[in-house]
Design a protein that fits this description.
This protein has a single domain (3-159), classed as Beta Barrel (Hypothetical Protein Pfu-838710-001), CATH 2.40.320.10. The longest helix has 10 residues, at 70-79. 15% of the residues lie in helices and 45% in strands. It contains three helices and nine strands; from the N terminus they run βββββαββββαα. The protein is globular and about 40 Å long. By secondary structure, the chain is mostly beta strands.
């Protein structure tokens, strides 16, 4: 059984860029989503995967990841997945004993920057970098499944009215 323990934070400033790698473009789409979980297709770095994740609110979720043929994934993204797709560039940033992942979103979620850290235990200590802002691990608006139906661009547009 796969388990993911992940904490998610808003990013402030661009101090994270000093230690970041070159990043990887990611396109992902959702085939299904319910109160129980989601089924996602992801293409990154010339590879494709089908991912199933529980919809548990918080930092611990069940997660299963299976490689699939790239042409199949591209067709699923184009024809079967809910729109808009999630488009982002993911950077890996070493901080202390951990690797943080910083996602710069594009498309319908342009302007959103999130940092995530995966942990082995919920109570595992980690160093919080100065560029990590408010924790949003328990805020479902920042889950990728929610960003499909309520893109970040719409939050900003409605806030400016």
């Amino acid at each position: 059984m796969g388990t993911e323990i992940e904490r998610k934070f808003l990013v402030r400033g661009d101090g994270w860029r000093r230690r970041a790698d070159r990043g990887t473009e990611i396109r992902q789409g959702y085939l299904a989503g319910s109160e129980a979980g989601s089924v996602r297709v992801r293409v990154a770095a010339g590879r494709a995967a089908l991912n199933i994740k529980s919809a548990t609110l918080g930092v611990r979720r069940l997660e299963y990841d299976y490689p699939i043929p790239l042409p199949d994934a591209e067709q699923m993204l184009e024809r079967l997945c809910m729109k808009p797709l999630i488009e982002k560039r993911r950077y890996r940033v070493p901080v202390g004993d951990h690797i943080w992942e910083v996602d710069l979103f594009h498309g319908a979620n342009e302007g959103l920057i999130l940092a995530e850290i995966e942990l082995a235990r919920e109570d595992e200590p980690f160093r919080l970098p100065d560029w990590a802002g408010e924790e949003v691990s328990h805020d479902p608006r920042y889950y990728n499944t929610c960003l499909v139906s309520h893109p970040y661009r719409e939050w900003r547009d409605s806030a400016s009215r």
